[in-house]
Amino acid sequence: MNLTFSKVAVGIKEYLLMTVGMFLYAFGWVACVMPAGGMGGGATGLSMIFNALFPAISIGTFVFIINALLLIAAGFIVGWNFGIKTIFCIAMLSVAMDVVGIVVPENILAIYTENIDSHNILLVILGAVLAGIGVALSFSQGGSTGGTDIVAMIINKYKTVSYGKIVISSDFFIIGSSLFIATDLATGIAMVIYGYIMVAVFGYTVDMIQSGNQQSSQIFIISPEYEAIADAINLEARRGVTIIDGKGWYTKSECKIVMVVCRKRDASGILKIARRIDERAFITMGSVMGVYGQGFEALNKI
Question: Which domains does the chain have, with CATH numbers?
Fold first, then answer.
């Protein structure tokens, strides 16, 4: 009974934190970036463009439609193995974008900062930081906002391209497209500049909170329950696992080492799996400068 209650409590905490993360993300966009005339990438940036063309449909609705279409496309191309947390975050983000737009007074922060020099840039930076914190919070609980993550999943089905390159390329295209919805050229140029500032600060914030930049993590897990841990990482985290033979030199006893190389955003989920199966497992985690092969950088990049 206690174990069941503990699992329920952990699950509630995870979904609560993901909800808070999505509302932080939405607040950063709705209360800071958009009133400042800013722009951004991903599904939210694309939704802003569509909302400008079709104002009768809310940004939150467009976020949901874009991610739903991407999920369906990825389902047919890659497979229907999406985590429930990803679907939850996508739905919650769509709701949060509309709810924050209704609850938060229009341009409230812009009004308070209008007498500060370069207040628009400050609002964009603040919005990017808040959005970055929200996404990092969701990542830490195993969630994902979809968008670029789904695009990366589809592209890597056919060609190994790093996640960072996919993000940069898609954001560059989306932000550049905002020139076509601007009322004049000067406004469009300002929107593009703010957009690139937003993406840079947003990415740096997520990386800082996720303990690093675009490096990957290498995790070693020593446990007598290595088989159960390896199976769970394969099935739940959908990451590759390597079992290494080891020997404790002090005890002179043989042991098995579970080695996992993953993106930093996936590391916390793998650690939770190991802790859940064996609370006494010995675990080390470090950053690696480069990872090459399937799912990471292509070997021809060396």
Answer: 2-209 (no CATH), 216-301 (3.30.70.260)
